Amino acid sequence: MIYKIYLIDADNGISLVESTFKELKKVQDDIITGFFNAINLTIDVIQEAMVKGRRVNEMDRVLQSEDSIIFIYYHPLSRILFCSISDADDDSEKIEDVVHKIANRFWKKHQSDLKNFRTTTDKSRFQTLIVDIENLTIGGRIAEVFPKLLIVKGVLEKVLSMGMIDNFDLQVALQCTGRNSPLKISRILNKKQSEIIPILQKLEQLEIINI
Fold first, then answer.
1. Which domain holds residue 52?
2. By CB neighbour count within 10 A (0-12 exposed, 13-18 middle, 19+ buried), where does 33 fall?
3. How many domains does one find in the chain?
4. Residue pLDDT, tens place only, 75-133
5. Residue 40 CB coordination number (10 Å)
6. pTM score, two decimals?
C-alpha cells in the first residue's frame, strides 16, 4: 500500500501537498530519513544542472529497500517533485504510472495556481488535489498485488500431472492465498522476486490464479 504522496517544489524544497493513506510502521524514522535524503540529492542535481544552464528533463528515481519503495518523479514543466512512499510489496511500475498521472492532473488543474504560489507562497489552492490523489491511487491501494488461486489443490495436482506446470510452479500457486504479495511469496520460498514474477504470469495465463 502507498503510505504517503508528496508534492515538493524543486526550486526551494517546500512541500505543497501531502496525502497520507497509512501511517508508517516502526521503521518510519529510517524510511523518512532515506526519503528526504533522496529528495535533497535530487534537488541538488536539478539545481546544479540549472546553474550550468542545462535543460533538466523529466526524471524518475526508484529506491527499493526491504521495507519500502520510494519513487520520485521530476516534472520539468512545473518544476515539482512528485513522490511516494509505499510498501516494498507494491508493484513499482504501477506506482510510477499513477504518480505520472497525478503530475499530469496537477499541471492541468493548477498551472496558474503554481505561478501564484511562486509569487505569494500561498499553497492553499493545491489542497483540492488530495481528492484526485485518493481517486487515482484508489485510496493508496492501486499498486497492491495479491495473487489468488482460482482452483482447488486437487485440480492443481492434476494440472501438475499433465505436465502443464512443474513442482515449483505448484509451490508458488499454493502461496497465492489472496493475502501474499509476490515479494512475500519470494521470501516464503526463499527465492528472488524476479524468479516469482514470471511464474505468476504463467499461472495467470493458465487461469490458475488471478492477479
1. 2-136
2. exposed
3. 2
4. 999 999 999 999 899 999 999 999 999 999 999 999 999 999 999 989 999 999 999 99
5. 11
6. 0.85
